[in-house]
């Protein structure tokens, strides 16, 4: 690597560190969601996923789940697809009203992107190895990422504060913004405080909760009305409601968030990671079940 290249990459890394708030769940969150999803994939679905993954993933979906954040600057068009904002102080979400980018282009938001990439994967059913007009590897990586993002409450936050990005707070002693607290800080603090700084232990704990604590809720998490393949509008509605009830509450600009906030919000974060994982698996299972059926016919 040449010196200037190294410098540029260094510079890009610094830029990434300076704008962490807009990225969606941090790397850990996205990885955890996809690790959870992997456990609930059917055999057909797992085979289809493995066929679509890039070689670098070595058969592990979780490895590519943060990818959409890494290409945000390169794929400039994709940056509006990580979130959907609602009018200020409206604690509800409506696709027609809210799903657009800052230029007003319709369908360019996280829920629109989830519909789009689900459609791309589901419609390329003939044979996933045959030529499709879509890049299905990217469709899978985007879908897996955006199902995660739409479950982060502040990815469906208010337009005026950019989903909490402009609300400067302290997380214990560190200066940051509210969006970043929900993307990364709550998970980071949980890892350090409860999970021996080991993400695998945190993922195991969430999986255990799905099996025991939330086992009665899991079927309703997986279910979409009208037998739809995916239902991101529901996930977004839940998110904005959680944003109002938990994320924005007691987190005004300049406030210091510590134990009270951390301990009462961590269960929300862990449940959203669990729901995102379960729903991503259910969606992929529906997409690839249709494919298997059509292939058989
Ligand atoms: Zn994202």
TrEMBL record:
Keyword Disulfide bond: yes
Record keywords, A-Z: Disulfide bond, Endonuclease, Glycoprotein, Hydrolase, Membrane, Metal-binding, Nuclease, Signal, Transmembrane, Transmembrane helix
Reaction equation(s) it catalyzes: Endonucleolytic cleavage to 5'-phosphomononucleotide and 5'-phosphooligonucleotide end-products
EC number per UniProt: 3.1.30.1
Origin superkingdom: Eukaryota
Parts of the chain that traverse the membrane: 6-26
Molecular function in Gene Ontology: metal ion binding; nucleic acid binding; RNA endonuclease activity; single-stranded DNA endodeoxyribonuclease activity
Assembly behavior: Monomer.
Name of this protein: Aspergillus nuclease S1
Species per Swiss-Prot/TrEMBL record: Quillaja saponaria (Soap bark tree)
Species lineage: Eukaryota, Viridiplantae, Streptophyta, Embryophyta, Tracheophyta
